[in-house]
């Protein structure tokens, strides 16, 4: 990790119609390329994607008055209605988002507005309310659940409120291990800023290189080091929020019984209640040591049993991940070991950082061995770490090759884990089969809790036509299966618009009414991210 | 602990005008009795407390119709408007509550209603709404912040909704370590029920013997083992709530990004949004081993530095507590060592339970030594454990002797801990001095976090007259000082009515508006615990 020695490569602007730095694009490894026809049959290579200059957009619906008001709020140089800016803010990075970016006609926000600090965010919200313009808060642009769709709601236009200029370390309390960061600071920027003081946040979701600290909070992110440092919710000690009808600063104390924890109302609110402008987080000294260990299990079930033992004992590794047989086979295929791979069962990687590694490793190893695990050395875990942010690059190459690829995730108790996994896998395979498509489903566990764990699915499918339509029906089937089988509709990707129709099944009608009541109180005209989390009609 | 071998003494009904089991009443130890005049000057012995049979109450304001409706909801045998039942539900166990219980004229709810399960709770709320009767949810009756005051709000009567009949272990998932408990189950009952399956919850607040699992949730309790098991919020994996306009079941998954965590809206809601009827909690195997170690520090500041190191390293003891010089002196006085005590500085007790004790102890000890601590053996820590639920008994004896005694608590970051402690101590001493009373202030830290810690104050004062009036002014001064010095108005006692006027300073006007909006949505006629957490006029 670059941040360990204070140097971080902040990735350049993201590829407009795919993931990440175009210079880092990853070709499909040859063994995977060879495997695909076996798994998915012959796939059809898609028509070439449209070029940025040829995308057709509707004209910006901002009036001269609208434009002048935003100009006054943030300076005219920070109100951008060029086609490129609008297209770059047209959505997130789900596979449907990327498929839509390949089309000639696209929808986009009417302008991109770039405030520099909290007061300018507040001023933008005042303009939005006064002029009846919807606002889509935009951090790193890495949403995979439709949170960034340019939705006007009942208004005449929508602007993307790009928060990247709210950047920097605002305060660091080294004694308490408490840092205040501007919401638009990206993962690598956060680690670089903290590293100059010897501290680390330790939040490494796959979106790390682009996503922002405000986005982590708004979406209730969880990172790869969650076994050691917890999900992002648990790292947040305070936030500052601008809403259309009053600002908030929450988190006076590391522990409190001063009424309900309102911080938690804004974590996961995805911009529908307000715009998070500052995030205070717990930080720790940069760990000096790091140890890798990989494990093989006869099957996923025994691997899961190992993770359960580790989670319930506590004080284990910083990272622990279990890949099922299908994911293990493909990751080994990537390093050219298909033959061996297919006999390998399930694999686990562990990474230990920080203090007391020897004891933590010894206790963890004892539990994994008791569950049937066999150590397979440092190699696979080290390999995993090197490539841990690269998955989305491979998706671009798969899409280029005509292979549909998407991920989704859920979580449940340990006792329900196998049943939920089977239900989701069956919904995925059955859904694609119903559309005449072969599919290959991989699953891993990457976040563990004493009472349960996450399940993360990657699916490849050979969809012959209308992939957006096919995926919409498959995804609906999967969401129904998750609800029916006791899972959560999202463990760390959030709700956005894609999961919103299922939220009432997760939190009940009364739960949705609570969210709608908060929304009406803070955003009575409904300018903030209309339709995300809760359907627009519920907030009127 | 009784629950470790499956036997638990469930304490009998609590003393109506004091704490706990009358048979367990604790006389003041002679050395303390000798110390009091030195610390506080001569105190005046109060008039004898009124006897239960002589308390004067207004007649119950329930109409025959009201009464018939509650009879229909829970059975007439579970609607009790006898003077004794009403007086026993007249308030909580703060010192002002106990002083009011010593007076001849008292206020009390108009009846006590005892539902047996969720549906009966729901039926009671329907009666309350239809008949315009306020409802005070009542668990163990241990609130110390005025949450149980019989407040009618805008209604013509108020009933105490006693939840003790909602008792029992509803489900236990031994694989996931997840238990569902009826909300009225008390601390000892919970541990006894779990112990028959080999599990422990491990939540031991001082109110443990009487308080209920629903009360722990409603008040965001934190227990003495919080260093090992976290505050109660973090133990809760799900809840079931009855509200006047719809029920909720929350907590589908151990981790989720399905919108804001609404569970957290009900934790700390103190019965103003709904009545918690079931609580799902994380449980763990009963620890086999327990190790005690006590420490001496030259002063509180160095002790706090030791606790900070332990908290930030993680994986430390199950219990850790730091008593300041004043508290150390008095606790040593109780065991007859005044002379030695006053030279002793600050003291720390640690208790280790569960796995990996040797390593955890070694790492913890290294940090405590580095901060200037010297081990003082098992003794004081073991003594602390034996008496850990007995503090409130001593308060009764102090009140009998004419000594005012009350506790309050707050929390802040490590870097602000000394300043906050000084501010609170100064507000306490200054407040009593202004009323012409000598006081003695003790402080301990009993809950640690990576970024900060709690501060718990016990104050003794020789108030000559009108203790309720004097304390109200002192407490206001303390709350102002806490807010001005960056603390939280409550770390684990909750808001109730006593702290409600300060909540807007904690969470802002916008925060109060959010709570009021939720309240209006779920309880539009305002029957639920009017005036707790937020002032009545904010919820209209």
Unreliable parts of chain A:
1-11
Secondary structural class of chain A: alpha+beta
Oligomer: homodimer
The profile of the biggest β sheet of chain A is: 7 strands, antiparallel
| Rg of Cα set of chain A | 23 Å
Name the chain pair with the biggest interface and residue counts per chain: A-B, 92 and 92 residues
Number of strands of chain A: 18
Strand content of chain A: 15-25%
Average pLDDT for all residues of chain A = 94
- Which sequence of strands runs across the widest sheet of chain A? 15-12-14-13-17-18-16
Ends apart, CA distance between termini of chain A: 47 Å
Helix content of chain A: 25-40%
Number of helices of chain A: 19
Shape of chain A: globular
Tell me what the structure shows.
Two copies of one chain form a homodimer. By secondary structure, chain A is α+β, with helices and mostly antiparallel strands. Chain A contains 19 helices and 18 strands. In chain A, the strands form four sheets. In chain A, strands 15-12-14-13-17-18-16 form a seven-stranded antiparallel sheet, sandwiched between helices. A five-stranded antiparallel sheet of chain A has the order 5-6-10-8-9. In chain A, strands 1-2-4-3 form a four-stranded mixed sheet. In chain A, a hairpin with a 4-residue loop joins strand 5 (169-173) and strand 6 (178-182). In chain A, helix 11 crosses helix 14. At the A-B interface, strand 9, helix 10, helix 11, helix 14 and strand 16 of A face strand 9, helix 10, helix 11, helix 14 and strand 16 of B.
């Amino acid at each position: 990790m670059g941040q360990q020695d204070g140097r971080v490569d902040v990735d350049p602007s993201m590829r407009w119609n795919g993931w990440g730095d175009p210079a880092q694009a990853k070709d499909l490894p040859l063994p995977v390329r060879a495997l695909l026809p076996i798994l998915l049959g012959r796939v059809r290579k898609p028509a070439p994607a449209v070029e940025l200059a040829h995308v057709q957009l509707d004209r910006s619906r901002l009036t001269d008055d609208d434009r002048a008001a935003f100009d006054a709020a943030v300076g005219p140089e920070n109100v951008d209605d060029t086609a490129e800016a609008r297209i770059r803010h047209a959505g997130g990075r789900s596979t449907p988002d990327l498929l839509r970016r390949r089309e000639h006609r696209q929808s986009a926000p009417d302008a991109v507005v770039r405030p520099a600090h909290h007061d300018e965010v507040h001023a933008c919200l005042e303009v939005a309310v006064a002029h009846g313009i919807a606002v889509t808060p935009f951090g790193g642009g890495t949403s995979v659940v439709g949170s960034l769709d340019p939705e006007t709601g009942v208004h005449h236009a929508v602007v993307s409120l790009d928060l990247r200029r709210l950047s920097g370390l605002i305060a660091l309390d080294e004694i308490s291990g408490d840092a205040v960061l501007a919401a638009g600071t990206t993962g690598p920027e956060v680690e670089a800023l903290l590293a100059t003081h010897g501290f680390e946040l330790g939040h490494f979701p796959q979106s790390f290189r682009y996503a922002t600290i405000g986005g982590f909070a708004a979406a209730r992110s969880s990172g790869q080091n969650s076994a050691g440092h917890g999900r992002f919710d648990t790292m947040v000690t305070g936030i500052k929020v601008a809403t259309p009808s009053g600002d908030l600063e929450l988190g006076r104390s590391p522990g409190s019984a001063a009424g309900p924890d309102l911080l938690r109302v804004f974590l996961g609110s995805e911009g529908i209640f307000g715009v998070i402008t500052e995030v205070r987080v717990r930080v720790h000294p940069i760990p000096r040591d790091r140890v890798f260990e990989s494990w093989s299990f006869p099957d996923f079930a025994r691997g899961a049993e190992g993770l359960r033992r580790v989670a319930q004992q506590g004080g284990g590794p910083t990272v622990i991940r279990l890949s099922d047989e299908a994911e293990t086979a493909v990751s080994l295929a990537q390093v050219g070991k298909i033959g061996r791979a297919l006999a390998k069962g399930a694999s686990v990687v562990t990474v230990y950082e920080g203090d007391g590694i020897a004891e933590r490793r010894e206790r963890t190893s004892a539990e994994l061995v008791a569950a049937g695990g066999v150590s397979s050395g440092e190699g696979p875990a080290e390999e995993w770490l090197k490539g841990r942010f690269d998955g989305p690059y491979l998706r671009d190459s798969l899409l280029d090759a005509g292979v549909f690829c998407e991920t989704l995730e859920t979580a449940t108790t340990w006792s329900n884990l196998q049943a939920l996994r089977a239900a989701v896998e069956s919904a995925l395979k059955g859904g694609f089969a119903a559309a005449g498509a072969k599919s290959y489903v991989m699953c891993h566990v990457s976040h563990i809790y004493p009472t349960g764990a996450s399940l993360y699915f990657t699916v490849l499918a050979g969809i012959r036509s209308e992939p957006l339509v096919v995926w919409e029906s498959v995804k609906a089937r999967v969401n129904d299966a998750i609800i029916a089988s006791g899972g959560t509709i999202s463990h760390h990707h959030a709700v956005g618009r894609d999961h919103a129709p299922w939220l009432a099944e997760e939190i009940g009608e009364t739960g949705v009414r609570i969210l709608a009541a908060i929304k009406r109180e803070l955003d009575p005209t409904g300018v903030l991210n209309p339709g995300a989390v809760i359907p627009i009609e519920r907030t009127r």
